[in-house]
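Pasting as-is:
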Amino acid sequence: MSTSITEALAAPLADPDTFIDGPPYELFAQLRDVEPVAWTPEPEPHSGFWSVTRHADIVAVSRDWATFSSARGVSLEDLDDDQLEHRTSLIDTDPPAHTALRKVLSGEFLPKVINGYETFLRGIVAKTMDSALALGTFDFVEQVSSEIPVRVLARMLSVPDTDREKLTSWGDRLVGTSDPEFADALAGSAASDQYRLLPFRSPAALEVFEYGRELQSQRRANPTGDLVSKMVEAEIDGEKLAQRDLDNYFLLLALAGQETTRQAISHAMETLIENPAVLTRFQEQPELLSGAALDEMLRWGPPVYHMRRTATADAMIGDSKVKQGDKIAIWYPAGNRDERAIERASVLDVDRSSVDLLTFGKGGPHFCMGSFLAKMEYRVTLEELVARLDSAVYDAPIERLRSNFVNGIKRLPVRVTTR
């Protein structure tokens, strides 16, 4: 296949409109077969990137942080040194800096700590589910999937439950910069240039910074042992975190602590509606949700499309050569359906004995720090949903986020009957 034809095949991955109906699985399958590491041109001023779509190659890139670095950002935006200085957070670093920053809060996300939240979480989920399902017809995103993770986040930050609307709105505006409904200044527009030093080029970041700084001030005066207290008390090489590091760390926490889990829960409902036999299986055998079936559901509906890496030297990805400085996008939905790694990958099978899941990353230092919490929220939500739900159908078409970064569902109108 000629280079020009290959580029034409991969080019749609640079366009958020390609994802408006969900992951382009047919395109991913073509690329896995024909050009698993495919050059993907971008409109100026961006430089283009390599799209990696095979499971094994995604794992290899994820594990080799020294060759495939996160230090120039994990989104496809080309950032200059000034932008990096202002916008770098935990996920935009490599070891040893990444290791030190991660250690600030990693202990708070260990299973022995997170398991202590399950009773509280189940109470939230049960109350939320009862209220939503009683409506019969409702938007699942508004009434369920956006409510549960943000309530857990509020608990972990020790902030009032009434602040959840602000936290949710900030999340929408930050990840929705390519969606005209959510963007304060649409990505790529001249209007966004004034925010170039802010994460996601969004003025919502300033509001999150201000909110976080107020919490930090309160915790310095009266520590509570929550996540914010841990952040302001932490030291790296004998020094407290600088304010810019606190700002970006808090923003990452406020965003990642709700957005990806929210989308995963939304996709779970979408999957159950489109696969009613799976809902029946879970109703008959709810114990499946404590096993590999949970990973199978997460494989089927991943909340994040890609992460970006940058080559620090000329290198090989599979049989393809990339050059120093090249951008690389590892596409999780593509790898999650790679038949080379997962038997019958195009089939949703909740009876699998194991799932080689990419949804939280795979190996390497950037494996999702909050994965255990996210999976617990996801599992408890599905358990409480399945216990109550008799049937569910769409009440109107799904509305999806215009993004090639977050696999987002903005609205999921459903009509349900209960058991």
